[in-house]
Each structure stands twice: as structure tokens, then as C-alpha cells.
């Protein structure tokens, strides 16, 4: 369900945005995993620093692994941006932030052939006075590149189907409610009639077993009712 993923992604983004507005807290938002052929795809990789006040050396390495293939280094940021030799050369652009918490890159003019697993490896060396601990983080992005038309048609059809289903279900619910209401009111009517009939039994009659048998015939009960004084 691509639509569902979109919704989940949008809500995560919204939550991140909200947090971002309220305080400039770093949030590790996952990357979108579907790209449209020929477009610019931002491979989002955010690696938050727990201690922003400490300066650090950050080394970023991006890898690409095609289906059934090996990891190939495609991009590196080590003090300076560098595109590595790969089928992506000339199509990659640094899209990170100055504080090196967002270390995203963008793939320009993405093709169907670019589907696969992208890995973003971040190595950080914190520069304390006495020691220099090193932290690493790794993010995987399973990217699927789709053709524009196919994707649009399926999402369009599923949206239409959803609305048709919604209208149909609402109508069905309405019909069912009317049907039930009529059934209930009819049953109530019958119950009331039965109750009147039942109350009518003792009037003018002894408690004889034949009495109940007589009650079964509607013509009889009508006569009985008409005999009743108002
Ligand atoms: C990063 O990507 C956005 C679109 O996703 C673009 O508008 C912006 O210019 C990019 N920044 C850099 C530094 O490439
Ligand atoms: C995008 O890539 C396709 C091949 O994958 C190429 O034919 C086309 O010219 C490229 N478009 C741009 C704007 O670079
Ligand atoms: C598709 O990708 C494979 C491996 O990444 C590469 O060998 C091949 O030349 C690519 N084909 C096209 C049409 O770009
Ligand atoms: C990225 O880093 C992780 C953990 O540091 C490591 O296990 C993995 O092999 C690295 N990926 C690549 C493609 O080097």
C-alpha cells in the first residue's frame, strides 16, 4: 500500500516539523523509499548528535547495492564533498546541513535501474580534550524507482475505488437502517395488537382452554374486540 506508506511518511514528517518548530531538536526522520523515474530523489539520512556543543570530525560514506550485487561506494564527505567513480557519477549532489547532522544526498534524473539498497555510514570522532571517542551509525534505504504513469494510474484507481466504496457503504447503511426501522416498528405494532388481544381474552370469557384456540383466528378476535365496550 503505497498510499498508506505516504500517509505514515507525511505524519512522521509533520511530527518532525512540529518538534522542529517548537525547539530545534534533531529528529531522525526515515527517508522516502519510492522515487519516480527521471526525477530528483533526495536520499534522506539524518544522524543526530547527542552533544551538539562538542565539536566533531564527521566522515560520511554513501554506498549503493543493486539487487543481488555488492556494496559500491558512491559518495564521500570527508572535509570536502566528493563523488566517487560509479554509475552515479555526475548525478549526485550533496544535500546535507552545515552542522553535519543531516548528511543527505540527492540523485538527479533517477532511472529504474537505480532501485536497490542505499547505505549511509556516518563516522564521528568527538574532539574532547583528553580523549577522542568514535561513534558510527548506519542507515539503510530500500529504494524502489517506479514509472510515473503506472504509479499515477494505480493511485488514481485506488482513490476512485475508495470513494465508490465509501458511497456504496453509506447507501447500504442507510437502506439497512430504514429497513430495520420499518421492521422494528412493524414488530412493535404486531406486539401491541397481540397485547390487546391477550388483554381481551378474559373480558366476557371464562379461563377456558378453547379460549386460546379461538384467539388464533383473527376474525374471531376482531369480533371479540368489537364486542368490547370502548
Ligand atoms: C536540498 O534539496 C532541496 C529539495 O529537496 C533543494 O531545494 C535544496 O536546494 C537542496 N540543497 C542543497 C544544498 O543542495
Ligand atoms: C536522464 O537519464 C536518461 C537515461 O537514463 C537520459 O536519456 C536522459 O537524457 C537524462 N535526462 C537528463 C535531463 O539528464
Ligand atoms: C544498470 O545497472 C547495472 C548495475 O548497476 C549496470 O551494469 C547497467 O549498465 C545499468 N544499465 C543501464 C541501462 O543503465
Ligand atoms: C556501515 O557501517 C556498519 C556499522 O558501522 C558496518 O557494519 C557496515 O558494513 C558499513 N557498510 C558498508 C557498506 O561499509
List keywords for this structure.
single chain, 230 residues, alpha+beta, six-stranded mixed sheet, three-stranded antiparallel sheet, 4 helices, 24% strand, binds 2-acetamido-2-deoxy-beta-D-glucopyranose
Q: Could you write a compact summary of the structure shown?
A:
With 230 residues, this protein is of the alpha+beta class. The protein contains four helices and nine strands. 40% of the residues lie in helices and 24% in strands.
Helix-strand layout with pairing:
Elements: H1 2-22, E1 34-36, E2 41-43, E3 56-65, E4 72-78, E5 81-83, E6 92-94, E7 105-107, E8 116-126, E9 134-146, H2 148-200, H3 209-216, H4 218-227
The structure holds 2-acetamido-2-deoxy-beta-D-glucopyranose (NAG) (4 copies).
GO cellular component, one term: voltage-gated sodium channel complex
GO molecular function: sodium channel activity; sodium channel inhibitor activity; transmembrane transporter binding
Family: Belongs to the sodium channel auxiliary subunit SCN3B (TC 8.A.17) family.
Bound ligands, named by name, code or SMILES: 2-acetamido-2-deoxy-beta-D-glucopyranose
Roughly what fraction of the amino acids lie in strands?
Answer: 15-25%
Physical arrangement of strands within the biggest beta sheet: 1-9-8-3-4-5
Q: Uncertain segments of ≥5 residues (pLDDT<50)?
A: 203-227
Q: End-to-end span in angstroms?
A: 69 Å
Shape: elongated
Radius of gyration, rounded?
37 Å
- The total beta strand count reads 9
Helix content: 40-55%
Q: Which H/E pattern describes the elements?
A: HEEEEEEEEEHHH
Integer average pLDDT: 80
Pairing-aware structural class of the strands and helices? alpha+beta
* Tally of DSSP helical segments: 4
Largest sheet: 6 strands, mixed
Amino acid at each position: 500500500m503505497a498510499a498508506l506508506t505516504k500517509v505514515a511518511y507525511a505524519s512522521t514528517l509533520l511530527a518532525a516539523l512540529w518538534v522542529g518548530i517548537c525547539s530545534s531538536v534533531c529528529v531522525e526522520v526515515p527517508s522516502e523509499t519510492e522515487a519516480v523515474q527521471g526525477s530528483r530523489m533526495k536520499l534522506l539520512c539524518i544522524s543526530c548528535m547527542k552533544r551538539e556543543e562538542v565539536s566533531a570530525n564527521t566522515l560520511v560514506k554513501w554506498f549503493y547495492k543493486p539487487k543481488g550485487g555488492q556494496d559500491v561506494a558512491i559518495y564521500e564527505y570527508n572535509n570536502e564533498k566528493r563523488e566517487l567513480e560509479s554509475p552515479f557519477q555526475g548525478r549526485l549532489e550533496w544535500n546535507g546541513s552545515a552542522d553535519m547532522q543531516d548528511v543527505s544526498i540527492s540523485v538527479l534524473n533517477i532511472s529504474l535501474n537505480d532501485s536497490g539498497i542505499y547505505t549511509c555510514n556516518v563516522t564521528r570522532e568527538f574532539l574532547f580534550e583528553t580523549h577522542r571517542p568514535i561513534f558510527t551509525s548506519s542507515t539503510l534505504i530500500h529504494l524502489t524507482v517506479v514509472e510515473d504513469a503506472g504509479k499515477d494510474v494505480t493511485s488514481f484507481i485506488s482513490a476512485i475505488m475508495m470513494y465508490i466504496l465509501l458511497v456504496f457503504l453509506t447507501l447500504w447503511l442507510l437502506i439497512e437502517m430504514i429497513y430495520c426501522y420499518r421492521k422494528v416498528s412493524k414488530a412493535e405494532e404486531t406486539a401491541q395488537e397481540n397485547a390487546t388481544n391477550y388483554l381481551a381474552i378474559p373480558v366476557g370469557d371464562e379461563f377456558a382452554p378453547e379460549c386460546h384456540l379461538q384467539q388464533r383466528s383473527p376474525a374471531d378476535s376482531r369480533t371479540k374486540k368489537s364486542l368490547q365496550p370502548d
